[in-house]
Amino acid sequence: MKGIFGVRPVPAAETHRTTMFEIFFDLVFVFALTRVITFMAGSPSALTLAQGLLLLLLLLYSWSPYIWVGNLVRPDVGLVRAATLVAMAAIFVAALVLPGAWQQGPELFDAPLTLALAYVVGRAVQLVILFWASATDPPLRSTLRFFTVPVMLGWIPLVIGALLGGTAQTALWTVAFLLNVGGARIASTFRPWQLRSVDHFTERFGLVLIIALGESLISAGAGPRTMAPVGAAVLAALLGLTSTVCLWWLYFDRLAPAARRAVSDVPGERRASVAGDAYGLGHSTLIIGAIYVALGIEEVIGQLTEKSAHPHGLGWEAATALYGGTTLYLLSRLVFRRLTIRSVHPTQVVAALLPLPLLPIGRSLPPLAALALLTVFLIGVTWFERRVDRRDERTATAQALLP
Hints:
mainly alpha, 14 helices, globular
């Protein structure tokens, strides 16, 4: 196959950076992530939080292949752009129906089935673009043969689960996710992907994370669903802002540029595997942690504004989102740090786990106090991490001066 109608996609250069079209695409994707927050906030429970996690995982592992697509070919040119717009429409439809992901209806295409089919369309577009790009690239075509089988097999439990609903849907969608991520891991082990532009790859992940962190700020304003925040709710919004700034600082201030340099220094034949592990594993769960923190902030401000506070404090569900999301973010950051700059200290692990023993305390506190406790903790972690970064920099400088 020489191309579609004799047309070939435009290859991405090694100096390729994220395009405005890709940022537009990612905004639609993050809209889908925010709709998962709407789904979980509708009736917070342990089951809803778990189902929300499953939705986030399915979304993230359907989006990340588009980063590889944009790293191989220009996504903002010609037929690739047209195909990506189809995928964008599918993601948008999925986002619209996400709050009803487990609500079956009498119509043929109810929310679960519409969501499943939209997901299939988004993944199918990826495969079409990748196979088209691999027409003159035998190594890439070989990788795709390994990659395509588990992806397409995952569509079967996804659609059947949408038709059955309930517990069967949860179980089958979990199987679909495991097929996708497990098959992708096996495929990349035998036939690694090609990474042409490290700057594009790292920049794209970073942009989505910063948009996800921005959702925490949006939650501070959208958490009050019926009126503008006043009094305690305004203070809670400022605490939410401070917490979000800390999360931003912990990744973007020093870790992100250090990780990009570390990936760039990896030899070419191993670079794609290292980048795929670091950003596919550590970075994706960073985004999930940020989404859960946003949900927790929204719940806190919602309780303060709507006078619907839990009778025994913040409540388990909101506290789990707030403190559990922070733990996931901090642990994911350390996984990412370990896979890129190869340096994690035991004290950092202890600090990342501290929100877990704080969770039952936060659950029993009034909402504002629970958020204040988390904010003070994050300020302390940020201060501590700055000391660790300076110590690592001094050690690296001393080693570089050795003969």
